[in-house]
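haha ok so turns out i had the wrong file open the whole time. this is the CORRECT one, sorry everyone. sequence first:
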Amino acid sequence: MKKMYGLISILIISALGYSNSALSDPTSLGIGAGWSNSPYKSYSANYYPIPHIDFDNGSFFIDDLSAGFYAYNHDNQSLSIGARYLSNEFKPHDSNNHQLKRLDSRHSTLLAEIEYSIDTNWGSFSSSIGTDVLNESNSLLVNADYSLPIVQGNLIIVPTIGINWANNKHNDYYYGISHKESSRSGLRYFNADDSFTPYLEIGAQYAFTDHIATFGGVHIDKLTGDAADSTMVSNSTITSIYMGVSYKF
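then structure:
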């Protein structure tokens, strides 16, 4: 199955739901809830519902907020082409900082994405590249990660380590401050360059029956470079927590 990195990611990320072949069934539906703090100054923590849709017939897949088809899917390797919802956003009225309230909104967008993954006896590796197709942020995002499923009876735990790279247009859209915004807000002009965001996630699933299971996890992103140095940002560590229940058909 495809893996959706979080909802994060800031990014992520995230959307925040985590789905992996070890954590999901061929066809399942579910619902969950998540919580995430924000990197922005005096910005409210976010509570949100998490829809869970997991379908994969070997040619086409739907994985929560991403969907696509396999250009190659054989044995332990796959190459897929699809689209993914990028939930990053900034709403000035959600900040209690009077300067940030004077900035422009930053909107979520849709990514076109190519992903390669391989499963081995030592874990699963994946890498992807995605680009904004709605002309909101002109983002170019590259991801690579490694996960190692641990199975204990009905319990599956999947620790994952990874890293994201975001281009300067992505960072400047979500973390930069234009000359006009600087004049309105009093914040200094800031033109953000590209940066890396390493992350750690621990996802889990417990099956109560052949059809009903619970899932949950914790995802932590660490902003670096200009994303962390932005005057919009006061917290470079973004923590997301999610849980829910799913039904396998």
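The longest helix spans residues 168-175.
again sry for the mixup
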